[in-house]
Amino acid sequence: MEHLTSIFHDLVVHFGYAGLFVVMFIGNMGAPAGTEFVMPTAGALAATGHLPGLPGLPGWVLVAIVGTIAEVCGATALYAVGYYGGVPVLERYGKYVGFKHSALEKVHGFYERFGTITVFWCRFIPFVRGVASFPAGISRMQKRYFIGYTALGSAIFCFGLAYLGNAAGKNLDTILPALHKAALAIGIGAAVVLAAVIVWLRLRKRAAGDLAA
């Protein structure tokens, strides 16, 4: 895993914005790209001038824009694979990204029951953010909701981490361990929120059923 992370980091260092786009794109196609580390690294590279901005547009903002566009493109591509390829694609290739059929059934049921907002929260959960688009496609989630929530979540993710990386600058290496813990905490927090929503909706449905009876 560390070797793969190093490769993705080198892509951004050597190929600039093109490398950043590729890494963020494949990171949303199920590849273990470590996007939660790539974005602050790219922000730090912008702070040191390695990833320059444009007139009136700071480098870290351009980094965030490129990252957001790449995420939406990658997530939409994986959504299309699920939408048009369905379960056979999962059964053939799911093992390569650690996504099993049993997990698909659970996520599929969750999308069916709790709807489109799930896509937004999945943008903040490590690993899940890279594969969540596939079951959304299989569930035939409406495209406008999928793209809208994905774009919103990705923008918050990319702008936030790019800004942190830019603020850290050359000191990024010293804060990466803390960033890793923060990413884990955010993932756990998002999972807790989802669990709370599930419980609330079930209780609400049960109460409505009792009232009708």
Q: Keywords for this structure?
A:
mainly alpha; 10 helices; 213 residues
Quick gist of this model?
The chain has 213 residues and is mainly α. The protein contains 10 helices and no strands.
Per DSSP E runs of 2 or more residues, the count of β-strands stands at 0
Strand content: under 5%
* Structure classification: mainly alpha
Tell me the number of helical segments per DSSP (H or I, 4 or more residues long). Answer: 10
What do these coordinates show?
With 213 residues, the protein is an all-alpha fold. It has one domain. It contains 10 helices and no strands. It has helices spanning 2-27, 35-47, 59-85, 87-93, 101-114, 117-122, 128-131, 133-138, 143-168, 172-212. Helix 2 packs antiparallel against helix 3, helix 2 crosses helix 10 and helix 3 packs antiparallel against helix 9 (143-168). The longest helix has 41 residues, at 172-212. The radius of gyration is 18 Å and the shape is globular. The protein starts with a helix and ends with a helix. The model has no long low-confidence stretch (mean pLDDT 78).
